[in-house]
Amino acid sequence: MAVTRLVGAVDWSAVGAAFAGLPVAVAIPLTLALLLRQTLNAVPLTYYVPGLGLWRSMQNDLSANVVATFTPPPADIVVRVAMFRSWGVDPTSGMAGVTLNTAKFYAVRFLAPTLGITLLAFQGAERRQWVVAVLCGLVAATMLTALVLLLRGDHLAAWLGRTAGRVVRRFRRATDPDVWAATMVDVRGRSAASLRRGLLPSMVALVGMVLADALVLLVALRACGVTGLTVVDVLAPFLLAYPLTLFPLFGLGLLDAILVGTWTTVAGVEQEGAIVAATIVWRAVTILGTLLLGGISLTAWRVRHRAAVPTSS
After folding, report:
1. What residues have CB less than 8 Å from 244, skipping those under 6 apart?
2. Contacts of 132 (CB under 8 A, 6+ apart)
3. Across 26-40, average pLDDT
4. Distance (Å, rounded) from C-alpha 169 to C-alpha 189?
5. 228-278: per-residue pLDDT in tens?
6. Rounded to whole angstroms, how far apart are CA atoms 218 and 227?
7. What is the per-residue pLDDT for 162?
């Protein structure tokens, strides 16, 4: 287990004791924080896809997530397209918006460490933390610059698509850079106006989503009885390590181990059991809770739009 390898032996009896002390009422703030997280996550798509409101954007994201978790691709895309059609939304424009939203979220993932280092700037950050934040900031700036370049015309869009295709082809031989170029030109044509209008508010929403994710973790730490950690002690390491959510299941195991190790160093080894319990609660809420919401969203859509549900022959 990643936590055991990076942190050492865990006192699971202390973890169990922390769970036993959890107040039932903590489910309310945890649920509200999760709903805030998912609402903010759905905001960008409302700017990129004309006619798609906030509720439907959230329903589309949650349903695609639960399908992608349990079935191989492109099942999640099939569900997204079926939903767009059932709502009278152009599926091509819808998927172009999904592509833009995905690209923006990648940029925000790498922007998070710069926010973390800002919190630590007045407390004295370590050199390695500055290095991580600067490198991640450069990656985020590059991604956002590439998105802005999409607004300049088809020529630059084609160049960006072809260049990205060539990079990917080093890992996937079947990749055709010309297809990537054509796709990028199509995305630019369909989404340029939406990108201009939604660039800043969607970035603010996604940063808010990351902070809402951290809020779930902060509530879990307090509920499990962790003391000795300030809000900055919680947020800064979380934001610095946030790019690890690129790994499967949002960096499950690896990110958790780093956070547990960091917080145990600050709060003391006697707090380790409660910290581990809090990270488990956080994962249960943000992963299992999101899957539960996705299952409810998908079921509700299927009941209401049975004719639009894709069926296998």
Report:
1. 251, 254, 255, 258
2. 113, 117, 240
3. 97
4. 25
5. 899 999 999 999 999 999 888 889 999 999 999 999 999 999 999 999 999
6. 11
7. 83
CA dist 238 and 267 (Å) reads 15
State the chain's mean pLDDT as an integer.
88
Say how far apart CA 138 and CA 109 lie, in whole Å. Answer: 12
**Pair of tokens at residue 144:** 């956002």
The pLDDT of residue 180: 75
Asked if pLDDT for residue 1 goes beyond 60, the answer is: no
